[in-house]
Amino acid sequence: MQECWSFEAVGRPSFAQLSSFLDDHSEEESNAPRRNPVISRQEMALAYSMKQSHLQNPENWEIDPIDIKMNEEVLGKGHFGEVYKASLHGRIVAVKTIKPGAPMTEEQFIKEAETTRFLSHENIVRTIGVCSYKPYIVIEFLPGGSLKKYLNNLNVRNITLSPTENLEIARQIACAMTHLEKNNYIHRDLAARNILVG
Ligand SMILES: Nc1ncnc2c1ncn2[C@@H]1O[C@H](COP(=O)(O)OP(=O)(O)O)[C@@H](O)[C@H]1O
Ligand SMILES: [Mg+2]
User: Fold this and answer.
1) What distance in angstroms lies between residue 141's CA and the mean position of ligand 2's atoms?
2) Distance 18 CA to ligand 1 centre (A)
3) Tens digits of per-residue pLDDT, 82-129?
4) In whole angstroms, how large is the CA radius of gyration of the chain?
5) DSSP E strands, the chain
């Protein structure tokens, strides 16, 4: 793990090496006696269950605004605008919006969503579709919100994650990054505020 801090990029392990290392380590850890976990593995899973995967059909990429019922609740502020809770055909979703004066045009905003259209991985939030007319980007709703908020909440409640739980978070992030790397994408803004908890 020391190599992660190497100044030279060539000396650092790839995400694939990291996730395989974390896999082995998680196995060793799970064989060790555990103190009471503060949250269950299932609860902290960053991977969102595949339950809603039928919502995403690449053929129905363009969504009719009439099908989206916006909720007043703001889930968070993104780089380009607010993210709202909404419902699509009766299912809860998150809707990304773009604010006036954002550093990109509405067309670029919608086009950016294209990059995530065919990404399918258990540790990567699904983009369900776009509403170019509004413009909205409709994504799976993750009830845990951002990892940053999630960790801050635990901190306020004086709850410390066990090494196993921390490793599990790191493992899932490394798996997601490995998948992006395989598809020739670079995240460029990997931070706890951009990780969502399922
Ligand atoms: N799918 C989602 N489910 C729940 N909350 C979300 C979702 N997407 C975003 N959020 C909330 O909105 C915030 C900003 O979202 P983010 O994806 O970082 O937007 P941007 O890409 O514009 O920076 C997140 O930190 C999180 O609190
Ligand atoms: Mg962000």
Assistant:
1) 15
2) 25
3) 999 999 999 999 999 999 999 899 999 999 898 888 888 999 999 999
4) 18
5) 68-77, 82-88, 91-96, 127-131, 136-140
Residue for token pair 């790839």: 14
Q: Which ligand is nearest to the CA of 146?
A: 1
| Ligand 1: nearest atom to the Cα of 148 | 25
DSSP 8-state class, residue 14: P
189 catalytic residue (yes or no): yes
Q: Which domains does the chain have, with CATH numbers?
A: 14-30+38-44+145-194 (no CATH), 54-140 (3.30.200.20)
Q: Which ligand is nearest to the CA of 96?
A: 1
Name the amino acid, one letter, at 162: S
pTM (two decimals): 0.79
Q: Of all atoms in ligand 1, which is nearest to the CA of residue 83? A: 12
